[in-house]
Design brief:
- 38% of the residues lie in helices and 12% in strands.
- It is built from four helices and four strands; from the N terminus they run βββαβααα.
- It has a four-stranded mixed beta sheet with strand order 1-3-2-4, with helices on one face.
- The longest helix is centred in the middle third of the chain and has 18 residues.
- It starts with 7 loop residues before the first strand and ends with a helix.
- It comes from Weissella sagaensis.
Length: 121
């Protein structure tokens, strides 16, 4: 998805406090696999792709899983949708499990209402 959209993904070797970063204008995402986050790299990547594809252009966005503002909530919703479409492409709704989804991607409990709604779309 990222490559088709002209997004360059770079693995960086940052420290544990250096979050992933999306440079929207340049369409570049730096993923730091050393970042101290329990949330899966796959979800973090989907989150940053969502910033580049859908957020208002800005110099950069740093990974923030918290749903503190409207933009981060919308970005997390889009990330859930991206992953759910890939994971559940051929899976009927009755076989989708929101709890398994959260466990697979190590999502914190405050994602529960979003995941419960969005994986069944």
């Amino acid at each position: 998805m990222a490559e088709k959209s002209g997004i360059v993904i770079t693995d960086i070797l940052g420290g544990p406090n250096d979050p992933d970063v999306a440079f929207c204008n340049d369409r570049i995402i730096n993923i730091n696999r050393n970042y101290n986050s329990r949330i899966s790299v796959a979800f973090r990547l989907a989150h940053e792709i969502s910033h580049i594809e859908f957020s208002n252009p800005s110099f950069l966005y740093r990974f923030s899983p918290y749903i503190k503002n409207k933009e981060e909530r919308e970005t997390n919703e889009r990330a859930i949708r991206i992953i759910a479409r890939l994971v559940y492409i051929d899976t009927p709704n009755e076989y989708r499990n929101w709890s398994d989804f959260m466990t697979e991607f190590n999502l914190p409990s405050w994602f529960e209402p979003l995941v419960k709604d969005l994986i069944y779309e």
